Amino acid sequence: MARLEINRSGEMDVFVRVVELGGFSAAARAVRMTPSAVSKLIARLEGRLGARLVNRSTRKLQLTPEGSAFYDRATRILADMEEAERAAASGDRPVGRIRLNTNASFSTHILAPLLPEFLARYPDVSLDIVQTDAVIDLMEERMDVAVRAGPLKSSSLIARKLGATRMMIVGAPSYLARAGEPKTVADLEKHNRLGFCYLRSIEGWPLTSGGQMITLPTIGNIQTSDGEALRVMAVAGVGLARLAAFAVREDIRAGRLQPVLEDCNPGDLEEVHAVYLGQGGPLPARVRALLDFLAERAAPAFRG
User: Fold this and answer.
1) Helix (H), strand (E) counts: the chain
2) The pTM is what?
3) Architecture per CATH, 96-163+270-302
4) Which is a GO BP term held by this UniProt record (predicted)?
5) Whose CA is closest to 131, among 105, 152, 98, 158?
6) 8-90 in CATH: which number?
7) What's the pLDDT tens digit per position in 159-210?
8) Quick count: other Cβ atoms within 10 Å of Cβ 160?
């Protein structure tokens, strides 16, 4: 019976505040307790769990591996409790904050133009958008949804296809005037081929030449981890880049970029998915609303 008397959610909340605010005093002010009471609560929690959660020093607190794992679980549990209360109060109406991870190209050219419609449809939902081309751990980064381009690796994540895009080599008129427009795959050997500095499913540019498929390495003087930065560099005339068609179509229409060697383009498509953690229970209404909206509206946006 004594076990039932422990306010576990209260303990978790105080512990999370200690971690996020960086100390007992700041957490104590936030929860209206004394620093000594907060310190005793953490000590009782550690005693009950049989594990040290934080290493204490006069300057800062440092999480132990056990403390880091407990913090990750506690934040998810508290978020689930908050979502349950919101759902109960709202009749499962989408409310709350969504943490979304996406690459900058999708965010700029697909997501941003759709956001006014989404937010008008769901005024009680807000988004934290974190942009990176690298693949992240959703649980570790506390993300609800991530948008990923290219083949998906086997994992516990659940995926919904949002669309697919052609890939194409493009260059700015200023660069092509200076370096010459390549007419054959062999001509590309003389060009500055901009690329990515992280591992991708296909390393290099797939092309057809003489009826055969080849992959040309991206050997240029700039590599970046950001596809949108690569597009901007191509527009600036730094070199050639192979990018998603949806990311460069407006530049092509405006004459800032032009396709190169389209007759050697193998026509491969890069699929784009929204992925999320499959935790066995129903999705929060806010996350389900975003996934349904992207599945409905993103595919036409890819086609332009």
Assistant:
1) 11, 13
2) 0.69
3) 3-Layer(aba) Sandwich (3.40)
4) DNA-templated transcription
5) 105
6) 1.10.10.10
7) 999 999 999 999 999 999 999 999 999 999 999 999 887 665 567 899 998 8
8) 14
